[in-house]
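Board work, copied verbatim: Delta-aminolevulinic acid dehydratase
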Amino acid sequence: MLPTRLRKNTAIRNLIRETQLSMNDVVYPLFIVDGQGVRREIGSMKEQYHLSLDMLGAETQALKELGIRYVILFGVPDEKDSEATPAFVETGLVQEAIRVIKKVDPEMYVITDVCLCEYKSDGHCCFFEENGEIQRQKSLETLSKTALSHVKAGADMVAPSDMMDGRIGHMRETLNQAGYEAIPIMAYSAKFASSFYGPFRDAANSAPAFGDRRSYQMDPANAREALKETVLDIEEGADIVMVKPAMPYLDIIVKGKELSYLPMAAYQVSGEYAMIKNAVDSGLMDRRAIFESLICIKRAGADIIITYFAKELQVMLKEYQ
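↓ predict structure ↓
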């Protein structure tokens, strides 16, 4: 334990604090929808919104004023099809959102989630054979085509969240062949089949029409498998690896960080947000719990935290750090 004279002195306590948070640690998720004049609160995620493209410019400016310099985009189109066409068309929601953000704030760093579940009519992240087996090659080709369309629109980084075997290598090769060797890939490497995604399914309108995603997302009981998946993504050319969810899997963040010098990201997912947010709003927990949750994720080894609390962090840094 630190000597009392160090613990009681705020200036010294801040000087010797082992873990520090800053606005450069957080990425804020944005959900883009069809329509005009849409800024609609997501029912299961208080103070998080669906935004139409015409509302995105004002949101971008507001994020800049809050000190947020990194965003990750999710498209939620009204129309979906069996081929996930809205994911990769030039005029898709994410593609257009990148252009809007870059026009308003060229320095905003734009990451795009690359998956098919928001765009396929069955809500799955991949294609299937008639016998129910994953149609791997078609899935990889469509995911890579989607990533390339995002980069052509101006994305700074792509983040494949599908958990298909081999997708990092396929995507890296596709981007390289198109002349985008400098675009980094942030891999959702250890993405667990978690109940904590519940509110996100509402936000992204991506609940599967049949079955679940356990055949390609990971069993929450398996730590060694998570590390194996992380190693495979590193070997295939990932630039950043990720653990999702964050707080229930802090042990995976710690172990994953020990595997490589690569940066580690963690996604504080919708269920984590909803639990903490509702508890704080109802008075069951102090608002400091938000800050504590973020600093614990950072302490575990995350260099990047994707969090719906990013808008609140600037004020909390002044209050608590």
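Strands lie at 26-33, 39-42, 45-52, 70-76, 109-114, 157-160, 186-191, 240-244, 264-268, 304-307.
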